[in-house]
Amino acid sequence: MPKTAAVVGAGIAGLVSAKRLIEAGYQVEIFESTSRVGGLIASANLGGHQIDIGAESFAVAKNTVPELCAELGIEQLIVSPQRSDARILTSGGAHLIPHGVLGIPSDLDDPAVVDVVGADAVAAAKQLDSAAWNYPPEITIGALVEARLGRAFVDNFLTPVIAGVHSSDAMTLEAATVAPGLLAKAAELGSLVAAVGATRNSAARPGAAVASISGGMHRLVSALESHLIKAGAKIHLNRPVESLADLNDYDRVVLAAGIEGAAQLFSDLAAIRGVDAAVVALLVESEQLNELPRGSGVLVAADVEGISAKAATHVNAKWAWVNSELPPNQHILRFSFGRNGILPADTDALAALAVADAAKIFGVDDIRVVESVTQLWPKALVQSGPGHSVIVKRVKAALAADSRLAIIGAGLGGNGITGILSEGR
Ligand SMILES: Cc1cc2nc3c(=O)[nH]c(=O)nc-3n(C[C@H](O)[C@H](O)[C@H](O)COP(=O)(O)OP(=O)(O)OC[C@H]3O[C@@H](n4cnc5c(N)ncnc54)[C@H](O)[C@@H]3O)c2cc1C
């Protein structure tokens, strides 16, 4: 009799786990509570274009996703952004995000840094970042950057980027979780800026920090789904698992049910906090947007008044495959909501808020909206506050004693696809 495995959740973590289990000789069944696979990787139809309405890229700090694509025979679909020159919008105007990690620069003499914080703040940062390295392992990324570089670097660079990526405040997130490896590297080199430079230089793909799939990230999910079906996996849609005890007949069980779903089935995970996010995509017409006034997009700093979104991407400026589908003067703009995990009270009005934000964020006044699509993502992003890594260690210790159960994703591997898949190896 072949060994059997049950996978709970058909997001990217569950699908990849299923693939690995099949490779290890298991007969695999996947249980998914909704009517589709992919979880937070999802597409939506916007004016006839199938666009990503959840995750839209993956980090290239590690080679995990490209390796998976190669195994699926779709490595030729991997694309780098055609532009990665996103801006940060503060009450003082828009400025470039410096080359680095999470807005922490890899070079303090970069004009994108000096022009924003000024020469005095740069000189002070150089001094701060040469001090002895001695920080507790649970230090937040905000406290770390403030200690090493000064408050101006937190407010102008780190906070808007962290809000855009993690929907949380930089002062609440553990550095060890949001920038894995950076603390250890910085301790080794004695400098945060040097560690950022080393991290970027060691990325699996040079250049931009992220890559995507031509046609959208959802094509990766479709390729995985087809591969699994061919390999004999059974995918049961609309089949929520109510209790792990219902899976006692399987030799192995992988819990890959996202942050909220996994916590409902494994109570030790309940201490991991999931926060809300939402995405609005607009198909618009505008001649002024042809000039790509904000490069690939904008992260909105918390001090900017009158804007509800925390970030916006000029999708066709960033991804050539989207641009190639659009007629002249048409653009796709994607707005992210949920600063610090809190959505505007009236979520039915998100599209209207995005329309109102568009002109202010992109600095244009000729936008005509053709169509919009809104997607809410409740409890979707992990808020890895102080003590998060202690919870992760505790869960992992409990799992180490259990040879049947594994947990992938669910807040244990951070927010990104690359982190989750690297963790799940
Ligand atoms: C708006 C947004 C943008 C993002 N952008 C990026 C990005 O650009 N790059 C990046 O790397 N990451 C991004 N992320 C994060 C990334 O999408 C997620 O970290 C990743 O997709 C999570 O995968 P997962 O399989 O662990 O969980 P999920 O995708 O949440 O999948 C879990 C699955 O389990 C199912 N499930 C839950 N409970 C049960 C149950 N009891 N029984 C059966 N099934 C169950 C759910 O329906 C779901 O399909 C983004 C997230 C959001 C919300």
Briefly note the structural class of the backbone: alpha/beta
Q: What is the rounded distance between the termini?
A: 26 Å
CATH class of the largest domain: Alpha Beta
For the secondary structure, the number of strands is 19
Binned, the helix content reads: 25-40%
**Sequence stretches where pLDDT stays below 50 over 5 or more residues:** none
Number of structural units classed as domains: 3
Radius of gyration, taken over Cα atoms and rounded to an integer in Å: 22 Å
How many strands, what sense, and barrel or not for the largest sheet? 7 strands, mixed
CATH architecture verdict of the largest domain: 3-Layer(bba) Sandwich
Shape: globular
The strand order across the widest sheet is 8-7-15-16-17-14-18
CATH topology of the largest domain: FAD/NAD(P)-binding domain
Overall average pLDDT? 93
Q: Could you name the key traits of this structure?
A:
single chain; 425 residues; alpha/beta; FAD/NAD(P)-binding domain; protoporphyrinogen ix oxidase, domain 3; Polyamine Oxidase, Chain A, domain 2; 3 domains; seven-stranded mixed sheet; 16 helices; binds flavin-adenine dinucleotide
